[in-house]
């Protein structure tokens, strides 16, 4: 079974702090690793994604760190804001496609004032 | 510039009834994916369709579930003889080419009473 394991299940961070969410995968054929953000009542929205030819990708306050040998990747949210409070899903796919995704179980992030 | 449109947003069915979920992909997108999200879980792939073709239905339950994406009109996910375990959020996503990142709709929340 292709799996992506995500932790923690929930996370509380103070405003201005760093939020870190981790994912681990098993299938070495995975070659695309996106993170999705989901607000209540909405569909997931692509936040940032990485392919295994780089170890880190940064877009604004969001950074993906990728460790190919450990088969792990993580999302770092710098200067976390209350508006970042949402559920975050990591995912993975293979075959060069960004479309058929295997999702992690999600992390519910709450950023407090 | 409409995104992926799903309807209805909420659907209540009694056990044994049929549920029909509709999805109109983004303009210019001919690849449609259906995912199911159970409470407190990540999204699970169900089926991948292109116009008039089912490309991958490896995530579809073998019985009661079917999907189509006709030449004209929206994609339809049909669940016959619904059971309480079918209660979930069903998300549709689309892609222009089967490789680019997915754009998700806001989902249909099915409740079976």
What key phrases describe this protein's structure?
heterodimer; A: 113 residues; mainly beta; six-stranded mixed sheet; five-stranded antiparallel sheet; 11 strands; B: 113 residues; seven-stranded mixed sheet; globular
Task: Reconstruct the topology from this structure.
The complex is a heterodimer of chains A (113) and B (113).
Chain A: E1 4-7, E2 10-14, E3 19-25, E4 30-38, E5 45-50, E6 56-59, E7 62-67, E8 72-77, E9 86-94, E10 102-103, E11 107-112
Parallel strand pairs in A: 2-11
Antiparallel strand pairs in A: 1-3, 3-8, 4-5, 4-9, 6-7, 7-8, 9-10, 9-11
Chain B: E1 5-7, E2 10-13, E3 19-24, E4 31-37, E5 43-50, E6 53-56, E7 65-68, E8 75-79, E9 88-95, E10 103-104, E11 108-112
Parallel strand pairs in B: 2-11
Antiparallel strand pairs in B: 1-3, 3-8, 4-5, 4-9, 5-6, 7-8, 9-10, 9-11
Question: Share of helix among residues of chain B?
Answer: under 10%
Oligomeric nature of the chains: heterodimer
**In sequence order, what are the helices and strands of chain A, one letter per element?**
EEEEEEEEEEE
Report the biggest beta sheet of chain B as strand number plus sense, adding barrel if it closes: 7 strands, mixed
Q: Into which percentage range does the β-strand content of chain B fall?
A: over 45%
Largest interface: A-B, 22 and 25 residues
Strand content of chain A: over 45%
Cα distance, first to last residue of chain B? 36 Å
- Structure summary, number of beta strands of chain A: 11
The best one-word shape of chain A is globular
Query: Total helix count of chain B?
Result: 0
Average pLDDT reading of chain A: 94
Spell out the helices and strands of chain B N to C. Answer: EEEEEEEEEEE
The structural class of chain A is mainly beta
Instruction: Work out the radius of gyration of chain B.
Output: 13 Å
User: What class would the helix/strand composition of chain B place it in?
Assistant: mainly beta
* Alpha carbon gyration radius of chain A: 13 Å
């Amino acid at each position: 079974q292709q799996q992506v394991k995500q932790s923690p299940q929930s996370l509380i961070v103070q405003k201005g702090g760093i939020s870190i969410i981790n994912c681990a995968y098993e299938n070495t054929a995975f070659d695309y690793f996106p993170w999705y953000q989901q607000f209540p009542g909405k569909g997931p929205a692509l936040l940032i994604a990485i392919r295994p030819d780089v170890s880190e990708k940064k877009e604004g306050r969001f950074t993906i760190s990728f460790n190919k040998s450990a088969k792990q990747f993580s999302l770092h949210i710098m200067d976390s804001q209350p508006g970042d409070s949402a559920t975050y899903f990591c995912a993975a796919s293979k075959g060069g496609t960004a479309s058929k995704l295997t999702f992690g179980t999600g992390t519910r992030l709450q950023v407090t004032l | 510039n409409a995104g992926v449109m799903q309807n209805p947003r909420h659907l209540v069915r009694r056990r044994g009834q049929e549920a029909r979920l509709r999805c109109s992909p983004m303009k210019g997108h001919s690849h449609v994916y259906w995912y199911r999200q159970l409470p407190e879980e990540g999204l699970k792939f169900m089926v991948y369709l292109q116009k008039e073709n089912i490309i991958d239905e490896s995530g579809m339950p073998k019985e009661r579930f079917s999907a189509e994406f006709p030449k004209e009109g929206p994609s339809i996910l049909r669940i016959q003889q619904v059971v309480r375990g079918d209660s979930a959020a069903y998300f549709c996503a689309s892609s222009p080419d089967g490789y680019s990142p997915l754009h998700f709709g806001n989902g249909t929340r099915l409740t079976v009473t």
